[in-house]
Design brief:
The protein is of the alpha/beta class and about 280 residues long. It is built from ten helices and seven strands.
């Protein structure tokens, strides 16, 4: 079993590693499983804060400050992967997300809002996957790509249509790339997290155990470790016959889908003022 989970002798790129949440946790877990991890973040400060301590512990992690939304950034990442002593095997696409200001009615979404969210979430995933898949295919070795979608891409995303649509597109891209790359021995999968306790989600999700018990079948929000565990499974040989799949990691939230209030805004939003602000149509 340990051999199936091991990533020893393999290089794994984690795009979006520096936020202190899922990406940072995946970086740690992959390195603990034996991988050399190329930890990518746009922010050097974030790398210093969240990845630096992991490097100090002796884990085989190469911090790389690069923007996954640009060709230059992707080239920088590939150069770092080529410089590693082990063979490039895997990619985890965590880069993305959405600021609280992106919540709004569909009638208010501008072209720029739409493009920004698609760039941050879908384009970073696709073009990084394209580049890493090409590198793995050229080596003739097998590989595994795992991307982070969202429960918002698996169901409806009221007042967050651009984000939800971008995350749904990740699911579609995952399925198509899985078919195209299967003959090269490269598996392509995704996870779709539910509400997870991260610094990013804390900007608009408050602590409310009673609400969590009402909305989520397991009665609580997930943790970065639980999301990273599912990602590590899909990255490793334990999932060697799985490709083209998106695994919901949501504690059963999607099974109940009771977290919308009477006005169809999420009960997870912090306060009535924020809820009213995103519903304004002017």
């Amino acid at each position: 079993m340990d051999e199936l989970l091991s990533l020893a002798g393999r290089t794994v790129v984690v795009s979006g590693a520096g936020g202190g949440g899922i990406g940072t946790t995946v970086t740690r877990m992959a390195a603990e499983a034996g991988a050399t991890v190329v930890a990518v973040s746009r922010s050097q400060d974030n790398l210093d804060t969240h990845i630096g301590p992991l490097v100090d512990k002796g884990l085989a992690i190469i911090p790389v400050a690069a923007d996954a939304a640009t060709d230059a950034g992707i080239s920088t990442v590939l150069d770092a992967a080529r410089g590693a002593e082990t063979t490039l095997y895997g990619l985890v696409n965590v880069a993305g997300g959405a600021a609280p200001s992106t919540w709004m009615p569909a009638t208010r979404v501008s072209r720029q809002d739409w493009r920004d969210l698609f760039t941050a979430n879908l384009e970073t995933m696709f073009f990084m996957s394209q580049a890493v898949a090409g590198e793995i295919r050229a080596s003739g070795e097998p590989g595994s790509i795992v991307s982070v979608s969202s429960i918002s891409g698996m169901n409806t995303a009221p007042y967050h249509v651009a984000y939800g649509t971008a995350k749904a597109a990740i699911v579609a891209a995952t399925r198509t790339m899985a078919v195209e790359l299967a003959c090269d021995g490269i598996r392509v999968n995704a996870v779709a997290p539910g509400v997870t306790e991260t610094a990013a989600s804390a900007t608009y999700v408050d602590a409310d155990p009673d609400r969590d018990r009402q909305a989520i079948a397991m009665g609580r929000r997930g943790t970065p470790d639980e999301q990273a565990g599912a990602i590590l499974f899909l990255l490793s040989d334990l999932s060697g016959y799985i490709t083209g799949q998106t695994l919901l990691v949501d504690g059963g939230l999607n099974l109940r889908w009771t977290h919308l209030g009477a006005d169809n805004t999420s009960l997870f939003l912090k306060d009535d003022d924020f809820r009213a602000a995103i519903r304004r149509h002017e």
